[in-house]
Amino acid sequence: MLSRLRDRPWTTALLIAGFAQLLFMWGLGRPGKLSFDEVHYVPAAQTLLALAYPANTEHPLVAKMFIAAGIALFGDTPWGWRIFGTLAGTATVLGVFACLQLLFRQVPVAAFGAGLAMLNQTLLVEARTAMLEVYLGAFTTLAIAALLWSMRGRPAWRLALSAALFGLAVGVKWAAIPYVAGAGLLLVWGKSDGRDYWPGLPLFPALALFGTVSIGTYFATFAPAFFYAQDPLTLARLVPFQLEMYQRQTQILAPHPYQSSWWSWPLLIRPIWYFYEPDNGVQRGVLLLGNPAIMWGGLVAVAACLWAGLRQRSRALLGVGLLWVGSLAVWAVIPKSLGFYYYYHLSSIWLCIALAAAFHGCARGRFARAHEWFALLVLMLFVYFYPIISAAPLSGPQAFNRWMWFNSWR
Which one of 89, 178, 250, 295 is at 20 to 30 Å from 350 when CA atoms are compared? Predict the structure, then answer.
């Protein structure tokens, strides 16, 4: 059966997506109360659903629209708050599969990377928490996949699809803006020095199409705000409102016990307890902690991709390495007064792509099957940490000590 799947990327992708969706949905109702920043986004989604007044105005509306849709369809319950997040998590896994399949045209490579994304732990936590990051990851990953797809033919409408997805990603959170800029630079690079990755679509029309669709999609996501009962948005205020958002996002905030610096995220120094308290009669915990094998091993993979990309002149390997480097570098310059480990969510997804690419491009000879042993290690660590990333019942208030490898994790 596995040998047949090598030639069936769609079937393989759908099977992986089914496993991912079941994994993300299992026990979705726990914890049975708001956790971490759900206290901000669920009330904002409830207010948006009622079209009452502007709430949580430092961020755009897209993620809160999905949370509101879940509440409308499934009720104002933990399932309602989180159900669309699980779908976004599955979409992220599919996006990783699509990116790798388009880059390397090998189903095992794409399946390996998608499996790592499913088990990288940060995705599971974010998919089961009504916050913004999982939607940011889904739309950005799918947008990059669509951009790669547009290089394979029919460039105009596929490029428009990528632009629309990028616009939705920015509509979740402005952290997607650097990726939009990077896509624009890729368009320019792909048309230079005799290269033409979008044949039949000249550079300036391509840039105009990409810019118009992405910006138009972003502004269209504010449509519900025009119908608020109090203080509705107007066309005259739409652009000035963006400046108000910028001022709120860059304001100086008070220190937070879980704050951390961007350079510490790859080292897994300061994860975040989203939840740790009694719930429905038992102790439960949700720790945003990446799978150590992926988080640390992925750094080696990034270096391998950069080295092999330069040495082999492989644009795919080099691009994968630079994607992670750029995703972290932007946080060194973004004017945020506080940083948090969950900002690393997108970078943790790119590590899964880098690992799949590195094993494919660099593992030779006796290391040709090293990815299988690595996958086993990833799975074992996922199972080990699962109780404290899934809000499973714990033995008591001090149970968390079993998983605390370092004092900074407490």
Answer: 250
> Which tens digits make up the pLDDT trace of 166-201?
999 999 999 999 999 999 999 988 777 667 788 888
Tokens of 58: 């430092």
CA distance 315 to 319: 6
H-only helix segments in 36-132: 38-49, 62-74, 78-104, 107-118, 122-127
Name, in order, each residue with C-beta under 8 angstroms of 257's C-beta and a sequence gap of 6 or more: none
CA 397 – CA 283 distance, rounded (Å): 6
Output the six-digit token pair for 151.
Answer: 């290089």
Dihedral (C-alpha) 233, 236, 239, 242: value to the nearest 10 degrees?
-40
Nearest-5° Cα angle at 328, 242 to 36 = 65
Distance CA 20, CA 40 (A): 27
Name the nearest CA neighbour of 353 among 109, 90, 16, 6. 109
Rounded distance, CA 282 to CA 286, Å?
13
**Segment holding 275, helix H or strand E:** strand 272-279
| Amino acid letter, 184 | G
CA–CA gap between residue 201 and residue 190 (Å, rounded): 11
DSSP state letter for 151: T
Task: Summarize pLDDT for 382-394 with one digit per residue, the tens.
Answer: 999 999 999 999 9
Structure tokens at 218: 């972003």
Beta carbons of 46 and 71 less than 8 angstroms apart:
yes
Question: How confident is the model over 205-258, as pLDDT tens digits?
Answer: 999 999 999 999 999 999 999 999 999 999 999 999 999 998 888 887 788 788
Bridge partner residues of 282 (DSSP): 279
DSSP string, 304-357: HHHHHHHHHT-HHHHHHHHHHHHHHHHHHHS--S---GGGGHHHHHHHHHHHHH
Q: How far apart are CA 383 and CA 389, in angstroms?
A: 10
Q: Are 35 and 279 in contact (CB under 8 A)?
A: no
Bridge-based pairing state of the strands 272-279 and 282-288: antiparallel
Can you read off the two tokens belonging to residue 244? Answer: 């108000």
Record the tokens describing residue 223, joined without a space.
């449509």
Omega within 30 of 0 (cis) for the link into 278: no
Residue 257 is given by DSSP the state T
d(CA 342, CA 175): 12
